[in-house]
Amino acid sequence: MNMPGTFRAVVHISARQAEHPRAWAILGPMVDDERWKARFRAARVSLPGWAKDAPHRSTYRSNVTGTWEIYAWDRATGERRQVTDRPNGTWMGGVDPTGEWIWWFADTDGDEFGVWMRQPFGGGPDETAIPGLEPAYPSGLARGSSGLTVVGRSTDDGHTLHLYRPGSAPEVLYHHTEDAHVGGLSRDETLIAIGHSEHGDSRHMALRVVRPDGSTVADLWDGEGKGVYSAGFSPVAADSRLLVGHERRGRPELLIWDPVAGTETELRVDLPGEIDADWYPDGSALLLSHSHEARDELYRYDLADGSLHRIDTPRGVIGGATARPDGTVEFAWTSAAEPPVIKSTAGTVVLTPEGPPAPPSVPVEDAWVPGPGGRIHALVSRPEGTGPYPTVFDIHGGPTAQDDDSFSPAAAAWVDHGFAVVRVNYRGSTGYGSAWRDAIEHRVGLTELEDIKAVRDWAVSSGLADPDRLVLAGASWGGFLTLLGLGTQPGDWTVGVAGVPVADYFAAYEDEMEGLKAFDRALFGGSPEEVPDRYRQSSPLTYVEQVQAPVLILAGENDPRCPIRQIDNYLARLAELGKPYEVYRYDAGHGSLVVEERLRQMEAEMTFARKHLGLL
Q1: Which run of H or of E encompasses 295?
Q2: Which of 118, 197, 293, 537 has the greatest number of beta carbons closer than 10 A?
Q3: pTM of the entire predicted model
Q4: Rounded to an integer, what distance in angstroms lies between the CA atom of residue 520 and that of residue 201?
């Protein structure tokens, strides 16, 4: 559906004007069309996961066929094979502890609603992994070597954890209307960790450890506004220690909780930023991931004496890491300038996808901008030439996420077309402490946009960004902020590109999955019925009459997170008002796992922006 309207005319440049040093930015650079597309089409692989009882058996994701699917890799023989093959791809999957079975989640065209399937590691027919369970949204999975499985499910009735023993019907282990998920299964299969929000705040969870019969062993909760999160039981049999993330001092840190012994040991790590971790296979140490100012490092933390040893990795972002039984560490590494690679501390590349690698891009620059809530960290990707440039403010989703120094084919495509790209870690982002992350509560969207505007004004005043050619863009939460920004800051943006956004918060709440309803209640301090004014002031539909910039909206027909009806409500209102817009619909969910579809979307975004900036 296209709605006609008044758009900016194409700029015509004379020969004399073309000699001006800024003329290249008006005309646009000479773009190698295949180069930017090659970044999307280049085959990629994820960090391999491996079976606890059979470390030579691994699974990973790859887009080598043009669609993201699950693959098996036998390290002993070197054999690799494709496990899943579905039109819209498969994202969730992995090998069980025995190495005998590969589990994967089967939804319908990206709607995230389905059941777990399994297939023999060596190949064979798929079968339902847990007979008797109806389709649901997934909420965690833990499998034991005996076949004992704990599976989390979310439906309109709430959140349920089931216990499944092979040959028996699944049993209800836990049920609550508030958000809950599987937090882990101990190696000896006697303890089960449950993350829950019975207290009503799914953004700051509590932990409970139970026996397979459902009896409670212990509870852990740090009180209002302070979450605790399971990072997994010790990999050692008959060891009841659970690694836990906490935020008692205003940032994510770690402790080891023994729910059976009733002990807690906080791990004091003298590093700035935020810490996450996983176990070494023998349980004697932790593999720490240290995130600080949009980049990561790895450390080994020895539990016996608390010593910390840095693992040598290049400057950039660690997309995942795992310690192998031989003591080596495998990790996914990337930077904004260089595409991802799976490396080992042994000095080797662990897994290389088929085909040519993705072309590199430009490194990012760090910018620290004063803002209403403190210094704001932004990442800038700059094209060739001199500014001011047409500039894309590419707003990340989440909101509990962050932009970092990692490779982005989308950002690189904009840069190739002569745009500067600015990414803002606004209040609400992770990576900068609990207070920064939680500052958006009860004033959702508006707080983030204050930070985005502060960076926008800095980009203009510094000479980086052309104030007449500013694109506000993002997907998911970034799409929501885009629409909200176009309505509340109409004079600041020239074009909007909103992917899978929240557009009408009232209708979005009615239609979204139950877990997101719980998230929204925690974020707003209640449901739309309880705090309607907060939802109204944060809903893009409230401000649609003030929108001035042409906007492109991309929407998935099967999206359970930002459902299509609430987007249609916003589009209908744009049409009534005669506002300029276009819509791109695709037959999948909250994004696409198909490379060519993602390429079509990227091309639509850039064509729309360039058309309305007079760059075509």
Answers
A1: strand 295-302
A2: 197
A3: 0.93
A4: 10
